Amino acid sequence: MTPAARLAAAASVLDSIAQGRQPAEAVLKTWGSENRYAGSKDRRAVADRVYRVLRARGRLVWAMGGREDGRALVIGSLSLIDGLSLEEIEALHMGDGYGPRPLSKQERSRLTATDGELPGWVAAGLPEFVMEDFKASFGDSWAAEAEALMVPRAPIDLRVNAAKATVAEVAAELRAAGLDPQPTPWSAWGLRLNAEPPPNVQALEAFKDGRIEIQDEGSQIVCWLAGVEPGMTVVDYCAGGGGKTLGLAMQMAAAGSGRVVEAAEPGKVWTPTGWVDAPVAKKTAPVAGTDGRLVAYDVVQKRLDNIKPRLQRAGVAAELHQLGPNGGGVEDMVQQADVVLVDAPCTGSGTWRRRPEDAWRLKPEDVDRMHSLQMAIVARAAKLVKPGGRLVYVTCSMLRGENEATMDAFEEDHPSFTPVAITAAVGSANFTDAGRNKLAELSNGGHRIRLSPATANTDGFFAALYERQA
Predict the structure, then answer these.
(1) Among residues 1, 149, 224, 412, which one has the fewest Cβ atoms lying within 10 Å of its Cβ?
(2) HSE (CB half, 13 Å, CA atoms) of 268?
């Protein structure tokens, strides 16, 4: 593909992203499968352009006079991101072959216009209605928080599965595969890979055999804050894709069963005609022993079904149950759980550095809807916590309407749940010493904590801890 054809392709992909709800990654994959003539370098160039545009979308829309179509955004990116002159941009818009058509008079005028100082939300790269929320949460550092969330590419974080391997073993295995894993600073079970070039983690033997899972360090941290230990009864109330379910299950591995080791198959077997190669048997992943109970709930059965092979690959166990209407189907668990983790549905604003397209799909009413849903969910989940048990509320949101506002309402309605300081939950070996200090700093002695790309180099997470008194 010519450079001009790549620009036209990127514009087309951007239009497809805007017209649907699919992640940009999925749209790009579909485009690649439908355009086999595009080589790997072409696909990489188109993807790079698409993500650069998505991360700067607010500024590009402003620069192009409010236009939001893919063509306008790509043209704007050539000027504002690439720094090309008008003449250089025109040379890429000759209308030849599969390249984009020539620039219009209006497009030329936008590229040469000087609109003065950018509004704060445009400069920060946030949707306009989110800016005041960020100012309330982060004060003078709100713009730096926005930039860290929207501009850089996120690293690839892995969680080593203690049921099958040690961090040192997996790190050595990844280095042998040509990668450069580095320990995550806060989670003792994390390894970090650079996003460039993007590693194909799922092709690694360590992934196929369940020794690693892809899990952001922030997600690991909120799992460790739950304080799960072998022998407990634990509930993952909103299991979703199962990432935190697997993290909880790893913590529940009974003492002495922290490593699952498959028995080696014999190289030779005896037959009446002599020694021959042993037949290859179908292997079933062994399950680490536990002396507790982990129950994962979700409203969508398909999500639960997708967790099953992940549990098997990891060699850990959990019961999977679908929630009925209005949270039904949990009656036998009322006041039975030592720990209930509520990974509440949210807008996912904490993951915008991975999915920048979601920022521009978000509407104020979406936040209000999530807040109402979260209040109903956490109230139902709280009934499962036994006296003396812990409730952990988690979102991957950066917005106060889904975090502080929801927990303020919960605390007012549930006086029997008293706050648990974050510093009281970081004593386990799952945290590094630096991690304990960092979480103490970020929580400021309180029971709520906010992780963000700017403060912790994790995805955006919010967590609040409580103990049931009666």
Answers:
(1) 412
(2) 6
